[in-house]
Amino acid sequence: MMTGEQYKKSLNDNRETFFEGERVRDLVTHPVLGPCAARVAQGYDHWYSPGSDAVSPLMAIPHSSQELKERIPLQHESDIVSAVTYQSIMTLTTVATRIGDALPQYAERIRSYVRGAQHRDIRIVECITDAKGDRSRPPGKQDDPDAYTHVVDRRKDGVVIRGAKLHITGASLCHELMTIPTKAMKPGEESYAIACAVLVNSPGVKIVDTTYAPRHPDARNFPVSSKIHMPEGFVIFDDVFVPNERIFLDGEVTYAAIFAHSLGLWERLGGLSGMAEEADQLVGFAQLIAEANGLARESHIKEKISEMIIHATLVRASLEAAIANCQVTSEGAFPDELYTNAGKYHAAANYNSMVRHLHDISGGSILTAPGIADFENEVTGPLLRKYMGTMTGVDGEYRARLFHAIRDLTADSYGGWKAVTNVQAGGGLYAQRIVTRKYYDLKSAKEKALHTAGIKTAEK
Q1: Quick check: 281 pLDDT over 80?
Q2: For labelling, which of 122, 205, 364, 413 has a CA lying 20 to 30 Å from the CA of 143?
Q3: How many CA atoms lie within 13 A of 19 on its CB side?
Q4: Does the global pTM surpass 0.90?
């Protein structure tokens, strides 16, 4: 396993990262991206264990419902790059299980890659969403054939790929890019049915970063995002060579969708677990600010918080059901598809309503509360404490800190990122509806309805 310092040194490998128009030569010392690298390094130190056979708990494959459940709090403790590494490892493990009989050579490559990644203690991110071009047309009928990542040259020892992958959290801070098809492919689209692991410093890989990181000099006004922000990478494959041993699918269009579906399962489980935690946080903030405002006993406030509690409980129940009903195989434990997708859909579809309740309960000071430094000013501090306070025991600064946390979490740059990510991560809401319908026992539901109606068979 690597230490945090070893991880920082591993980033100095000539990778091409660009941020706000300039190439970043040193990620570790960069004023905006540097703290992100430091956060990943802290995770390395947190999980570090000496010994040549040690494996990070975030890279160990669960083999039971209990082990699957134990991974959830570990993901919440970790940085998002480490959490995505776990999802990447599990995505590939799921794929190996699903293609093992039909494509044993690829399945064995995947297993070998996973073992190597565990041993090297690397960080991996998921590259799935393509540039896509004209969304109404498939990959092979685009004006620009590079709209979807594809193979442009095949050599004896590997392939050359070209294209771009969007929305790749932490791409600049990982070691490898798990690159897979974004959707099912059809005959004639063989060059787009490519799945592989790409070294982030491979010649031709270029990453353009954006970020929701707060730029305010006083991080206390951003108590959430200042601690957890990560860059979003636009990953470009500008004729990148990938050796054979890193190729997990090459042209077998029938199996392209398996990669996307497998990633969707683990992305949605991660999203579901994250939103279960967030739902509890929203309830907590709603109750705290209602108490601070003196409105906790008002019936309409209690009703809103009750609705938020029910939402949080249902999201948590879906997560528990997805884990409790997991499928256990010789490869590992895999969450239940139905509960994972239905839970993720419910959590994402209702998130904005819960945030609306929180904003309604809190009031306009979410946006206009004075900064923490203003409470420390000898002139304004006493006056702000007086007028921001509401009653004995509720200090004005305490109330302002609650407002800042709520704004940062739900109504500022990070809040906007969360609102979009909760819907889009792991595929949009439509994708979860499709999978939910696929795994729901509709036949049994029809039989129950017929039995209730006293009808023996359904008419054709």
Answers
A1: yes
A2: 205
A3: 23
A4: yes
